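Trying the structure run again after the queue cleared.
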Amino acid sequence: MQRKNRTKTMMMIDKLAYSSPWRYKSTHLKSCFAIGTLLICVAVRSFFISSIVLILMGCLTVTYSRASLSHYGKMMLWPMAFLIMGTISILADIADEPMGMVHISIGSKYLVILGSSVIESGRLILVSLASVSCLYFLILTTAVLDLMAGLKRLHCPWLIIELMTLIYRFIFVLLDLALSINTAQKCRLGNKDLKTSIRSMGGMLAALFVQAMEKSSALFNAMEARCYDGRIHVLTEHRPAAKKEILLVAAYLTALLALAIFCRTKGGL
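Done. Tokens:
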């Protein structure tokens, strides 16, 4: 039962990252591959390049992160709410006269949707999804501690790394506490109607805040008892990339950049 509860509270992304066959590949190489692809995709903003990146990263992520196609599809739906809110401002416009594909009268003004706005909205959504797929590839094949170790080798300020480590730790602590409180509330019919659910949510947030402060105090005391000197030291293993892998990534990024420049000269196809 304890193992089952621990598995339930562990985040799916973290589980997939630790079980990925590519977890022990070079962190720097995977970062260059994912971030380089993302930068090219965002800089060019091409339908063709974004489609290639979205398909390629999706295939690699599903193949080498042990994530099923259905799980990956659900994860790609998570940012859709932000994309919809972001594209509404581009898709719709206010005009003094009817024009475009769709026009709705609102008093003396018209809410219009132009053909160019539809194209730009579609471009924004496709580029955003392709960029998200690049980040999913990185986080689903690389453990967070490996990413922090990579940042340390790049001489990232230690304060940022420390904050990332503590925040990462407390994600699991708060998730475990929230699930325990939520389970106790459900056992007492704490969500039988809307009014009770709102009251239960308020009580859970209040209790979660108090317990989070207690957990943080206990964590700091435990760190002090282990000779904490202001920095968190984590054992890491450096895994250099093979020359063949470096050449493959370099050839891929060069080919993608050349194709992106070609699409750019053709009007951003």
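The two ends are 55 Å apart (CA to CA). Worth checking whether this holds up in the mutant runs.
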